[in-house]
Request: fold
Amino acid sequence: MIAYAAHGPGWPGLLFFLGLGLLIAIGLILSGNRGRADLLLRVARHVGGTVVDDGWWRESEIRFRIAGRDAVLGFFNGTRHQRPWSRVSVSLGGLAPGTLHVLEDGFGQSFLKLFGAQDLEIGDAAFDRDYVVKATPESYAARVFAPERRAEVVRTVRSLRGLADPTFDVTPPQLTVTVRRFLRDEPAMLALIHAAREFVGYVLQEAPPPGMVFGEVTAAAGACPVCGTGLKDRVVRCEQCRTPHHRECWAYMGRCSTYACRGTAAR
Ligand SMILES: [Zn+2]
Ligand SMILES: [Zn+2]
Reply:
């Protein structure tokens, strides 16, 4: 008894505190997951979608519809080598007649080099100063940013300004709107969905009539699905669906660009 008093609580006491600590830690993790599950449910209900839970090792995602097309809001929490992201992808099924990328000035330098000296201006001085626009073919950018809807498109793109490096990426298989942050709040998630909904409207207005499917032609010609230019060297393949990408394009997108493919690793 004397030794017990002199040396603190002793083994039984130590085990008790360790156990208590463990229980508190597990409780915190579970309540954190619960909070996120509730958040995703609220967002899903807001857009008439469903939460898809693919197991504890994967982030849940929200599947819903935009303009009658399949859409998904997905998340990636990042690793030591990859930035986190949150993104909305909308399936276009090869409907877009090319690729189009809109980035904030200063972001994605190694990706942008693939387009050489291409410098597209859409005719709005402030926007052209703040953003970089790339397209294959070049004329596709002018069509999406056509004068009659330019102000609307600019407003949609600017609506995500301030979120971490937002980009709008149109490829034949899908439209993707990405921010490089793991979103944890409802307003930001809804803003992302809203921007994707508006942008897909502009893309669909510029889609070619049925029968002309540029995307399939491009894929057959061996072009990269992200930038739409030829794939000769610097090629990596998605570990899940084997689709080839330029190394830079893979790094820029942070994952596979096949719609609904969840591949986040390539070699
Ligand atoms: Zn590429
Ligand atoms: Zn893939």
Observations:
- Residues 214-220 have pLDDT under 50 and may be disordered.
- The chain has nine helices and ten strands.
- Residues 10-46 form the longest helix (37 residues).
- The radius of gyration is 23 Å.
